[in-house]
């Protein structure tokens, strides 16, 4: 009788252990997926910032050239 109780307790303990292991594995998997999504968002933000920086640099270069051209005086050549 006690052997069957001990056996049943052992089986239940083993099942609980497997469930806990599975839950821990699933939590780690979800955490890894979240980190991958966060990393992808950061990469997209960096790319967007680089594009904005490039646009700003182009704008600054254009303005600088336009000011230099205007400083030369009126232009009589037709482009």
Question: What attributes characterize this protein structure?
Answer:
89% helix, mainly alpha, 79 residues
Account of the protein in words:
The chain crosses the membrane at residues 6-25. Keywords: Membrane, Transmembrane, Transmembrane helix. This protein has 79 residues and is mainly α. It is built from one helix and no strands.
**Beta-strand residue percentage:** under 5%
Shape: rod-shaped
Beta strands, count: 0
- Total of DSSP H or I helical runs spanning 4+ residues: 1
SS-based class: mainly alpha
Main sheet?
none
The first-to-last residue Cα distance is: 104 Å
Q: Output the helix-strand order.
A: H
**Kindly state the mean pLDDT as a whole number?**
89
**Unreliable segments of 5+ consecutive residues:** none
How much helicity do the residues have?
over 70%
Rg over C-alpha atoms, rounded to the nearest angstrom? 34 Å
Keywords: Membrane, Transmembrane, Transmembrane helix
Transmembrane segments: 6-25
């Amino acid at each position: 009788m006690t052997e069957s109780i001990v056996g049943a307790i052992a089986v239940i303990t083993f099942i609980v252990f497997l469930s806990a292991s599975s839950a821990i594995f699933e939590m780690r998997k979800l955490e890894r997926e979240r980190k991958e999504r966060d990393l992808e968002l950061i990469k997209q933000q960096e790319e967007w910032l680089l594009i904005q920086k490039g646009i700003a640099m182009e704008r600054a270069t254009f303005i600088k050239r336009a000011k230099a051209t205007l400083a030369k005086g009126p232009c009589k050549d037709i482009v």
